[in-house]
Design goal:
By secondary structure, the chain is of the alpha/beta class. The protein contains ten helices and five strands, in the order E-H-E-H-E-H-E-H-E-H-H-H-H-H-H. Strands 2-1-3-4-5 form a five-stranded parallel sheet, with helices on both faces. It is elongated, with a radius of gyration of 18 Å. One of its GO terms (biological process) is regulation of DNA-templated transcription.
């Protein structure tokens, strides 16, 4: 089925661009590929409504700088960033700059497709986004003080060992709190937990 809106893929890796072109084309999206953020920005004034899927680490203008430039311009497109494994600090920075979401490579095809569908429907979903933010804040409020501390450590990139040392508890105890946090926040993995924390307002400048 053809999807409304275009998907602009930005990645300096030709193999990754080709892979995403095939995947998203098969899912019914209209895809346009760019090998750099600069070529994308050059075309931006003439682009249709759509969303951006960009790698975060690229030569020249990287994903973070791209978000800054989009924020300072008149065209605002929803952006999904792709990050390397464990790049939590970069992902957090990207979302603070307005990225809709982020994916850690390698990621499941269905997850990316679902994110893009959300991005393309975002323009008229302001009230829905407010409801999601309120729901995330409610989940955070359900955490105990220690669970909140452990969650904050996790979403700022600290290891279980570092968290354990900071609060003078065992790494095994951190694991228990971590499991509780994931359950209460309804997060399937660390990437989701980071996104939920940002939407709940836990991670601010």
């Amino acid at each position: 089925m053809s999807q409304s809106g275009k998907v602009y893929v930005i990645d300096d890796d030709a193999a990754m661009r080709d892979s995403l072109d095939f995947l998203l084309g098969s899912a019914g999206f209209h895809v346009q590929l760019f090998d750099s953020a600069q070529t994308f920005l050059d075309e931006l004034p003439r682009m249709e409504t759509g969303c951006v899927v960009t790698d975060i680490r690229m030569p020249g203008i990287d994903g973070i700088e791209l978000l800054r430039r989009l924020n300072s311009g008149v065209r605002r497109l929803p952006v999904i960033v792709m990050t390397g494994h464990g790049d939590v600090p970069l992902a957090v920075e990207a979302m603070k700059l307005g990225a809709l979401d982020f994916l850690e490579k390698p990621f499941e095809d269905e997850r990316l497709v679902s994110m893009i569908e959300t991005a393309l429907s975002q323009t008229d979903n302001g009230s829905k986004n407010e409801a999601i933010t309120a729901d995330m804040a409610s989940r955070v409020a359900s955490l105990t003080q220690r669970e909140h501390q452990v969650m904050l450590g996790l979403v700022t990139g600290q290891s279980n060992k570092v968290i354990a040392k900071e609060y003078d508890i065992s790494p095994r105890t951190v694991e228990v709190y971590r499991a509780n946090v994931m359950t209460k926040m309804q997060a399937g993995n660390l990437s989701e937990l980071v996104r939920f924390a940002i939407r709940a307002g836990m991670l601010k400048d």
